[in-house]
Design brief:
about 290 residues; single chain; 13 helices; mainly alpha
């Protein structure tokens, strides 16, 4: 019971870290180009991994699956780029809600690519979830292109998490995080150099905080999933929705309308059903797969 309570607290901490990271990204995106934000996010995470590498030696980074790590980094980095773009151009609540659609994309992907048998309940939940997306995006009105970018980011997140689950067959979590940060930093160098504008001193502090919050969120989520099942912890992650709405209202004067609230609730409920009624996954896979880009 103590382990379950600790897991819930860890997951709540992770939700808070990821929400605050989104707030800082939204704030600093007014001054710093998106590609530069991605570079700092990856570079700070890589710097945090250096003590692990020095403590254990280069042997802990030895891998026979460099292309798997590269695929994970490219899909995860691209999804991060989309998420940051969405945060910069949408309300905080909308960007967070659309990021939760990743499991909706995973269902058809699993059925087509992995030939996984998907029950009628999960198909209905997927359709309901996309109904919530339509309520949120309202394509019959002037559809904001940033919403399409956010949905693309969610699709890329689903692909990234699928790659991560495959890597966990042979790769420990720290090695996966290390190569994600390393390849992500390398991939972000050229776009960041093209869009470069030297951040102010205050912006540098905000950019560093983004990397710290991301690392803290990943670490606390990993500890949570090491202590309890997805079915218990996944509802806790949805704290990001009311947190994002409340902070967006307080700091950015964002006022979600009724359709936005209803669409977000439907997306959350559908995603929760899919997660809780998904195929069984081993503990190592759950722990790593829970990590967001």
């Amino acid at each position: 019971m103590i382990a379950r309570h600790a897991a819930v607290l860890y997951m709540a901490g992770a939700a808070l870290c990821f929400t605050l990271m989104g707030v800082v990204i939204k704030h600093v995106s007014a001054e710093v180009p998106i590609a530069v934000i991605v570079l700092f996010r990856m570079t700070v995470a890589l710097a945090i991994m250096i003590p692990w590498l020095l403590r254990h030696g280069l042997r802990v980074a030895a891998t026979r699956r460099p292309f798997g790590h590269l695929t994970r980094a490219l899909t995860g980095g691209a999804s991060l780029l989309c998420y940051i773009y969405a945060l910069a151009h949408l309300s905080l609540a909308d960007a967070i809600a659309l990021s939760f659609t990743s499991p909706l994309w995973a269902i058809p992907a699993a059925a087509v690519l992995l030939r996984e048998r998907v029950g009628i309940g999960r198909w209905l939940a997927t359709l309901s979830g996309f109904g919530g997306v339509l309520m949120l995006t309202r394509p019959h009105l002037a559809l904001d292109p940033a919403m399409l970018v956010a949905l693309l980011g969610a699709l890329l997140t689903a692909l990234s998490q699928s790659t991560t689950r495959g890597l966990t067959d042979t790769e420990p979590p720290d090695r996966i995080v290390f190569y994600y940060s390393l390849f992500g930093t390398i991939a972000a160098l050229a776009p960041a150099a093209h869009a470069w504008s030297t951040p102010s001193g205050a912006a540098l502090l905000w950019l560093t905080l983004i990397g710290i919050l991301a690392a803290a969120g990943l670490a606390t989520a990993a500890r949570a999933f090491a202590r309890a099942d997805v079915s218990l912890l996944s509802p806790i992650d949805f704290l990001r929705l009311p947190l994002g709405a409340a902070i967006g209202y307080a700091l950015f004067d964002e006022q979600p309308d009724l359709l936005t609230v209803a669409g977000s609730v439907i997306i959350a409920a559908s995603t929760l059903y899919i997660v809780r009624h998904g195929p069984a996954v081993s503990r190592p896979n759950r722990t790593v797969g829970a990590a967001r880009p």
